[in-house]
Every structure is written in C-alpha cells, then in structure tokens.
Amino acid sequence: MAAYVILGMGFGILMNDRGYGPLWSIACSVFIFAGSMQYITADLLASAVSPLHAAIMTLMVNARHLFYGISMIGKYRNMGKFKPYLIFGLTDETYSLLCDNKDYPSQKKDTQLYCFLVTLFDHSYWVIGTALGAIIGTVLDFNSKGIDFSMTALFVTVFVEQWLTSKEQRCALTGIGSAIICLIIFGESNFLIPTMLLITLLLSISYRKRGSSDE
Q: Any long-range contacts for 64-67 (C-beta under 8 Å, 24+ apart)?
C-alpha cells in the first residue's frame, strides 16, 4: 500500500503538471493500471503521439509482463470468473505476492478469492494515490521535475534489496550484463526487448545445464 499510494501520487501530480485534471488521472489509473508506463503516458498524452507509437512504447516498457504472464499460466488456469481481472491487474508487486504459495489458502475457492482481493487492493491503492496526487497538484504549485524518476528509483531499490538478501547473484549479473550488451548494440531507444529475450535465453540455458548436472 505504501509503495502504490506514494507512486500513484507522483503520477497524479505529473498528470496535473501536464495539464490533465483529476478525472483524467483517475481514469488512467483505473483503466490502464500500468505503473511505469503511466508515467510515460503523461508525456504521450501531452505530445499527442499516434496510437501505434504508444502501443510499441507500451510493449517495450512493459515487456517484462510477458514473462510474468507465462509464469502465472498454471496458477490462473482455474480462476474462473476472476481470471480476466487477474490478467489485467498483474503488476510487479501483485506478481511478487501471488507467485509465492506459502500464503495461499488450502481451499481452491478461497484461493481464487485471495488472488482476486490481492489484485483488487493493489489496484485500489494505486487509484487512491493517483486521486490524492491529482488533488494535491491542483492545490499546491511546485516544481514537478524529477517525479517521473520515482519508478526508476523503485526498481533500483528492489534490485538492491534482492542483491543484498540473495545468496546467489547469477541472475542479477545476467540481467546487468545483458542490458549493457544490448544497450551498446541497439541503443537506449531499442534495447529493452532484446535485453529481455537475451536474459530469457541465458537463464533457460543455465537452468537446463543445472538440471542436467543435478541428474
């Protein structure tokens, strides 16, 4: 809740700075709900880019969700009426909660409700934060420069925390190395998707070799 409310407030303030009122900000958080992509959306709306450009940009920024979705296929297979909303609401923090089985209820019906409520609460926190930020932005006049860096700061914080708590840094080093290589080859505007593909390839090879050695 703390993360979503604070980051949602940043988005609401940023949208107000770009000339969009609270209703626009809240509508974006209700119907888009894409975290870092929403920060970019504020600039896309202000510059009136084409839908095709916006779609490509969204794919590049949120490419990691392709891999989130693949890993959740088994868990979401039997979610019934909740499944469409669970797919829509799968964000970084929601994924981190739902991919861990230790808190799941033992009954199938309760598990469906648990996953739905986790997703709904996270979505609600983001919308509430956006509304607060939009209102604050209309009342207070201040320089919003740097607010759009808050999502980057969040990802850096998550990475550092995982680095300090993990016993093995192979995956982190694979990600860093892949990003640097693709950044050099493809440039900063086009390196994200190749980086994701390279990470997936390298980790798949690594896990396959590890499985073979275990046998």
A: 64/92, 64/196, 65/90, 66/196, 67/196, 67/200
**Three-class SS state of 91:** coil
Checking if the pLDDT of 214 tops 70, the result is no
Instruction: Number of helices (H) and strands (E) in the chain: give both, helices first.
Output: 12, 0
Band of pLDDT at residue 67, cut at 50, 70 and 90: confident
Domain boundaries, the chain: 2-165, 166-215
Are the CB atoms for 121 and 91 separated by under 8 Å? no
Tokens of 23: 């209703």
User: pTM (2 decimals)?
Assistant: 0.71
pLDDT at 105: 66
Cα–chain center distance at 196: 14
Structure tokens at 127: 């919308």
The tokens for 184 are 């050099």
